Structure of Bifunctional protein FolD:
Amino acid sequence: MARILDGKVINQQILDELKPRIAHLTSARRAPGLVVILVGNDPASEIYVRNKVKTCLELGVHSEEIRLPDTTTTAELLAHIETLNQRPAIDGILVQMPLPKQVDSRAVLLAIRPDKDVDGFHPFNVGQLVANAPAPRSCTPAGVMEILRRSGIDPAGSDAVVVGRSDIVGKPMAMLLLHAHATVTICHSKTQNLPEVCKRAQILVAAIGRPAMLTAEYIRPGAVVIDVGMNRVSSRPEAERITRGDAEKLARFEKRGSLLVGDVHPLDMAELSEAYTPVPGGVGLLTIAMLMSNTVQSAEHRLK
Ligand SMILES: Nc1nc(=O)c2c([nH]1)NC[C@@H]1CN(c3ccc(C(=O)N[C@@H](CCC(=O)O)C(=O)O)cc3)C=[N+]21
Ligand SMILES: [Mg+2]
């Protein structure tokens, strides 16, 4: 039986550890402050905002939201960032990705003060990551490392395969695993013999954004499988493929009109792996926990 790496439990551990630090900051000066800028409306971003607001409330982190229309220009966004860079009560600035195509994302990331960049996306912080030097780390990959560490899984010396090469997940994930002394392979849409390469992985991280794409032939029996994907499936044939016709799950799909599924086939992953992160209830929750952790750390840094 595979172990489920429960994001809820680990998330709560991390939040509980942050609470005394937040209490200290609040009594010493003020609560940590986080601002999220959301441009347009992307469904994945909406889930993120909702859970982030909930978590800030639970922790007593001051949170603000700036919602801008999807016609926003680069200059307008930069003006908001400039104001936030200068506000002393704000420790973290997060601009939700992806941005509409008329916006110059790189200019936006460069404009955020690196010490308020709680996403770890500023080129300075990316450089610090590559150098294994202290700086805010990208939340999703940092969350994956916390899951591994707190579940007693040490990547040192093992074969790790990361599927996906995005700046947000795949690349920083590979770098963190490398720093943890894994032998890391990064795969992507042009990789030849993808199932074969994945099947060599003792630690398999899927971050591709395709519902249940990694099936049995990609999974090494006994592997640790980390599913970073979050895909909403609304087609009936897809739902049948993913549930393998399970009547109860299909009924739930019919009722809600959609199914939230990762990048790895949930049944194959449960059957073949030694341990895996479920979707939902896995990596996603840790992304929020690490965002809180980065915000608290930034506030502590500013208090010095
Ligand atoms: N600059 C930037 N940084 C991000 O980190 C970022 C972003 N932009 N844009 C959008 C994506 C998406 N994302 C999520 C993280 C956690 C959940 C989450 O809480 N998931 C839970 C709940 C799922 C549910 O409520 O249905 C789970 O997986 O169990 C969702 C979505 C961060 N992103
Ligand atoms: Mg993500």
Q: What stands out?
A: Residues 140, 169, 228, 287 surround magnesium ion (ligand 2) (CB under 6 Å).
